[in-house]
């Protein structure tokens, strides 16, 4: 967002507004962390604010301050449409295209005409927002929300609740500060959040130390299903719906599984393919190291996108045919999938 646009938005926000904050379907730590951090901040500024999420979050995010106040669109679409229709401003956080909301909520967004404000760190945003605060080099949308608050001149409004939400988003989207987008600025932001009350040890434990027996069994199955393609420095994991059912799969249970494939020696490209019979799709996560862009790969082949080293996609083929398609693409990328 350029300086002129930022000042225009600042002027709009100088008066109380009816605001709705939205985020993508199957929300993760950055989606809810950024949304709730902004929620508490805008309420402090005197606005009437609601958070509207397409569907529910994993259990390990239920502790976030304000999570119980989030409205879910898919279980109550009539109420969700009413919330959207009353909004004067809609913030879209951690996504840049309406299809990321799912068919139901994405369709509803096309029927309203508020002032849209996009805060996001993914590449190639759709052109629907009057105000775009977009930077694909940033670690997370939560770090961008911090910058947004800072730009408005109200960092002093950041209390323990806001700090905890934003810290959670940064922690999860940086892989606990391991990913390349984690910069010195990220650490300076995190230092300030800690000083304002975020408890780094407690938050880490709430996010990561939540394994159940079933999840560990599912991880064992995922690792047993892992296939390594040495020629292409690639590894992938598959999980069928039957396997998910066998281990009583809960939302969020497969979080981070793809990173086990990427952690293998000499692997620079990893994927996990998860069958979802209810949606009739195969959900895919891609990860890479180095310069190989899984964002470009996913956009070109699997109806998705994301970042250079982390992206998501989907397929309407069967699990077997999706994997077959994936493997058949790799020879054309052999020169790119070469370790330096």
Question: How are the SSEs placed, and which strands pair?
Answer:
Blueprint: H1 3-12, E1 18-23, H2 29-44, E2 48-53, E3 71-72, H3 77-85, E4 89-93, H4 103-109, E5 115-120, E6 131-134, H5 141-151, H6 160-173, H7 184-195, H8 200-208, H9 213-224, E7 227-229, E8 234-239, H10 241-246, H11 257-262, E9 269-276, E10 281-288, H12 294-301, E11 305-306, E12 310-315, H13 319-329
Parallel strand pairs: 1-2, 1-4, 2-3, 4-5, 5-6, 8-9
Antiparallel strand pairs: 7-8, 9-10, 10-12, 11-12
Keywords:
6-stranded parallel sheet, inorganic pyrophosphatase (n-terminal core), 2 domains, 6-stranded mixed sheet, single chain, alpha/beta, 340 residues, 13 helices
3D architecture notes:
This protein folds into 2 domains: 3-208, inorganic pyrophosphatase (n-terminal core), CATH 3.90.1640; 213-333, Diaminopimelate Epimerase, Chain A, domain 1, CATH 3.10.310.30. It has 340 residues and is of the alpha/beta class. The chain has a 6-stranded parallel sheet, sandwiched between helices. It has helices at residues 3-12, 29-44, 77-85, 103-109, 141-151, 160-173, 184-195, 200-208, 213-224, 241-246, 257-262, 294-301, 319-329; strands at 18-23, 48-53, 71-72, 89-93, 115-120, 131-134, 227-229, 234-239, 269-276, 281-288, 305-306, 310-315. The radius of gyration is 20 Å and the shape is globular. The chain has 13 helices and 12 strands. Helix 2 (29-44) runs antiparallel to helix 6 (160-173), helix 5 crosses helix 6 and helix 6 (160-173) packs across helix 8 (200-208). The mean pLDDT is 95.
What structural class do the secondary elements suggest?
A: alpha/beta
| Number of contiguous helices | 13
- The CATH superfamily of the largest domain turns out to be inorganic pyrophosphatase (n-terminal core)
N- to C-terminal distance: 37 Å
Give the name of the CATH architecture of the largest domain: Alpha-Beta Complex
Shape: globular
Major β-sheet profile: 6 strands, parallel
Our count of domains comes out at 2
Could you say what the CATH topology of the largest domain is called?
Answer: inorganic pyrophosphatase (n-terminal core)
Major sheet: order of its strands?
3-2-1-4-5-6
The stretches of 5 or more residues where confidence is low (pLDDT under 50) are: none
How much helicity do the residues have?
25-40%
Q: Secondary-structure element order, as H and E? A: HEHEEHEHEEHHHHHEEHHEEHEEH
């Amino acid at each position: 967002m350029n300086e002129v646009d930022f000042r225009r938005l600042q002027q709009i926000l100088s008066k109380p507004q009816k605001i709705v904050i939205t985020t993508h379907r199957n929300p993760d730590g950055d989606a809810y962390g950024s949304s709730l951090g902004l929620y508490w901040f805008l309420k402090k500024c005197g606005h009437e604010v609601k958070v509207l999420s397409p569907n529910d979050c994993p259990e390990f995010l239920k502790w976030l301050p304000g999570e119980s106040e989030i409205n879910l669109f898919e279980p109550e679409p009539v109420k969700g449409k009413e919330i959207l229709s009353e909004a004067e401003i809609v913030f879209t956080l951690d996504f840049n295209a309406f299809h990321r909301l799912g068919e139901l909520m994405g369709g509803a967004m096309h029927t309203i005409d508020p002032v849209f404000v996009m805060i996001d760190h993914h590449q190639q945003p759709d052109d629907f927002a009057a105000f775009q605060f977009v930077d694909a080099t940033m670690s997370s949308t939560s770090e961008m929300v911090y910058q947004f608050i800072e730009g408005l001149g109200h960092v002093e409004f950041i209390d323990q609740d806001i700090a905890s939400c934003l810290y959670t988003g940064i922690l999860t989207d940086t892989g606990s500060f391991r990913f390349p987008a984690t910069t010195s600025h990220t650490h300076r932001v995190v230092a300030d959040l800690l000083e304002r009350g975020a408890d780094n040890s407690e938050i880490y434990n709430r996010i990561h130390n939540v394994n159940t027996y079933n999840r560990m069994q599912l991880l064992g199955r995922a690792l047993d299903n892992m296939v390594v393609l040495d020629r292409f420095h690639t590894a992938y994991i598959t999980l069928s719906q039957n396997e998910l059912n066998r281990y009583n799969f809960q939302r969020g249970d497969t979080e981070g599984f793809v990173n086990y494939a990427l952690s293998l020696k000499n692997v620079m490209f990893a994927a996990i393919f998860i069958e979802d019979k209810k949606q009739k799709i195969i959900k895919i996560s891609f990860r890479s190291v180095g310069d190989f862009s899984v964002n470009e790969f996913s956009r070109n082949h699997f109806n998705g996108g994301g970042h250079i080293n982390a992206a998501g996609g989907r397929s309407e083929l069967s699990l077997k045919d999706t994997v077959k398609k994936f493997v058949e693409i790799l020879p054309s990328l052999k020169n790119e999938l070469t370790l330096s």
